[in-house]
Amino acid sequence: MPPTIIRDLSDTSGYWAAIWTMCPMPDIHVICDAPVGCFNLVGTAVPDYTDAVPHIENLTPATMTEQEVGGKGTSDKVKWTYDNLAASGVIANKQVIVVSTAESEMIGSDHSSLVTRLGVGTRFYYSNSLSEDEWAGRDRVLRWLWSEYGAPFAGDVAVKPGTVNIIGPTYGCFNAPSELAELRRLIEGAGGHINMVYPYESHLAHTPQLAAGAVNVVLYKEFGTGLANDLGKPVLTAPFGMHDTTEFIRTLGDLLGTRAHADAFIASEKKGTLQAVWDLWRGPQGDWFGTLDVGIVAGLAHTEGLVRFLGDELGMKISFAAARPRRPGDYDNEGIRQHIHRRAPTFIFGSMNERIYLREAGSRHTNFIAAAFPGPAVRRAVGTPYLGYRGCVYLMQEIMNRLYEGLLNFLPVDGAYAAQRNPEAPAPAASTEQNGNMPWSTDARQLLDRELEKLPYLPRISASRQLQMMIEQLARQRGLNEVSAEMVEIGLVQSRQ
Amino acid sequence: MSEIIKLEGGTSQGAPCKLHPQSMCPAFGSLRILTRIEGSHPVMATDTGCLYGLTFVTHFYGASKSIVAPTLGTAELMSGEVVEGTRAAINVAAKEPGVRLIPVVSLCVAETAGMPEELLPRTVGDAEVVLVRVPAYAIHSHPEAKDIAVAALLNRLAEREGAVRDKSVALLGEVFPADPLAIDAVLRKMGVSETIFLPGRSLDDFRRVGRAGALAPLHPFYKESMAVARSWGMPIVGGAPVGVSGTSAWLKSVGNSLQLDPALVQQVIDEERAKSQAILDARPLSGRVLVTGYEGTELAYARMLVEAGAEVPYVSTSIGQDPLTLPDEMWLKARGTKEVIYRKALEEDVAAIDRYAPDLVFGTTPLASIAKERGIPAMYFTNQLASRPFFLSSGLAATVDFVAGVLTKGERYRWMQEFFQDA
After folding, report:
1. In order along chain A (497 residues), what is the average pLDDT of each group of 10 residues?
2. Is B156 buried (19+), middle (13-18) or exposed (0-12) by CB count in 10 A?
């Protein structure tokens, strides 16, 4: 069977997972067994735009060139890199981890014995980059970190009652600062105290302290459950939507013995944070949600969470929902692309890829809202969560403002201003003398109707009038008495330009 | 394929160790060019981590273009399915509307596993299939990968039959969109019949270039592409229309290569010189600037800034030293530049900040952030400097004006640094 074809890959590899999971911890220094590209992309070019960090400072390549690939192997280069890092003082008091890349795996580099001859404690991590994706990769790295640096030293770590670990985020996790802030707020609202946020806000040296957490909450359910299970305490996943968030707070209250505290928090949230949802629901805004359709492409937690809140709770029609990693039956990018080309929904939560497919389809009426990587996004403000109670408010607010934006773009503006800017442009259709409606041939009418069907409901109302006027104008210019299908085709081409 | 280059060379006593080389993934340079061409639908042969990173930056800095690739994991690589998978991906790309070119971008793991060109189709339907080999371990910098891509397209597409249009010139190098208009206008005044700018959006430009009267690479890393032109016997115009002296010399070379009327050429040179000189007289630069990007164009920028009055003690770039870089290097060193570093690493640039205490730094993102941590005004060379008009008097005005503006912003950088220094 020939290899399957990937279109616009959504999920990166185990190597990226390793770097992005290890490097948030400042007392790690990673040497990647990599050509310059694998260093630059993972350490600078991409985290500039996923995490808005200038570069990952605790990452150094053992830069692989033709000599190493051509038979020399990379051991000397790794040792040279280690020695020079040591001489520069950068790795004093740090744990050094040598990580394999696709190319080093391709040439069979295995440094598990080399690292024993480098500084004490230096380890080799085989990232399995040719086989493992970023989700399985992150899960395995977290378990490896626990087994190497945590479990062996956790024997006398006592459980601290009432404390909670948050597993995840790493670098390259969509919306991490906001999701983390909201999750922390929910946990504390339920009466818990944060023990560790691992690895995002941790030090490697503190890894054994994971054993002190009474409950583990997995932030991104696409990875981290492995470590949570290894820790052997109750495991929860971060909640999206009002129903699941309420359930999460109650359950956590029960687990921590703070149920009364949790119930009081829920009650105060209904009067506070969630009052906005209640107001929007009762106001004219709430009416819209049941009329809107949405496509969702995101990590597993965000996909399931957005379906839960937007679909189950607000009643939006889910046009498609594809998780990363894909669940059985989820669209791959080819399927998503075809769906968008066929008919784009009013809203798409997704990545750069969906944006490209929208542009290919000329779908200017679809509102795109970022919900996943790949794609450049600054998400460092902590006020834009998708999860938890605040996530409900933020999502409703964001969707409504996008609708307003679309409506404002469709309200008519007097055509004389366009004429003033560009005297060469043809007069706007509405201002011509023969402004009566023209007869349309059946073919022409059906063609226009079919085209309008592809538009989301809201913009369809205005677009239909605009297109009709523009096509009639074309027909008049050509001296026709009736609008033909050919005129519609020409008009549609012009309208897409 | 480029020769083997020792990257850690130059670790002599006292020199900083080259631990962190500075380049985008080299292959990005080729993808940027190949995705922007109308009707071009690239196939990437590589592993998933590479594919993710390169499509990420290409979809941001190149074009909004869907990219297909065969799955190349352990199973496929070890069972020799690289070619089979690539052929299947080519067939998928061939279904895109309006497809005319399918570049096969072959990267580290595919090159290591082996990608024999003769096993790929030369054409599919109306589309040319062109193999572009850009393994990062062998190319070393993304500007040089641009050259590999252009050379591959020239080799395949350039049309050599028919009469040479002897008063036309092909200009080679990615430039700001206003630059081709300005260069074309000035060259036509000298008697040039037409200009072709490569690499652009049009595949036909790669065909037409085969009958141009001369090739003028505007950047010093188009080695392979120049070799293709030389093999046709096409004259090459060296240098670039940068600053006052650079522009005069370049216009003269174009005139000589195309045998234009010397009096007319001199008249245009004088006009441009007067315009440029007036710009520099009106707003001379003053301050010490480090020019340390990784676009391969840094020497030319340094040269312009020096001519405008700035002190540029240190210039570094990602590309290798080459006869093409020598004229600018010698020009700079004769005018006070102390160091020109090729295939640079972050350590060298940081040491230069320590050594020269600059007023302004144009650098890679890591370097710019390090300069800002010290309260020194700094910007990402690629986004801020390399993305403005640059050539002739109009480019000089735009670039010098911009740099002059940034040089007045020191207070803000110091304030930010003071505010955050205890963070």
Report:
1. 88 98 98 96 96 96 94 95 95 97 95 94 97 98 98 97 97 98 98 98 98 98 98 98 98 98 98 98 95 97 98 98 97 97 96 97 93 97 98 98 90 85 67 66 86 76 80 86 88 78
2. middle
Centroid of chain to Cα B95: 31
Mutate to test the interface with A, among B19, B31, B79, B380 (most CBs of A within 10 A): B19
The whole-angstrom separation of Cα B215 and Cα B234 is: 7
Task: State how far the Cα of A446 lies from the Cα of A485, in Å rounded to an integer.
Answer: 9
The superfamily in CATH containing domain A14-132 is Nitrogenase molybdenum iron protein domain (3.40.50.1980)
Query: Are domains A157-274 and A277-409 of this chain identical in fold?
Result: yes
Range of the domain at B227: 165-279
> Homologous superfamily of A416-496 in CATH?
Proto-chlorophyllide reductase 57 kD subunit B (1.10.8.550)
Q: Which residues pair with B171 in a beta bridge?
A: B197, B216
| A130 vs A105: CA distance, rounded Å | 7
Q: What does the alpha-carbon distance between residue B142 and residue B325 come to, in Å, rounded to a whole number?
A: 16
Q: Strand, helix or coil at A312?
A: helix
Residues B264 and B322 in one domain: no
Q: A356 vs B137: CB contact, 8 Å cut-off? A: no
Residue A351, both tokens: 């990545």
Q: In A, which residues are within 8 Å of B72 by CB distance?
A: 3, 130
Contact state of B49 with A55 under an 8 Å Cβ cutoff = no
Q: What is the largest CA-CA distance in chain A?
A: 91
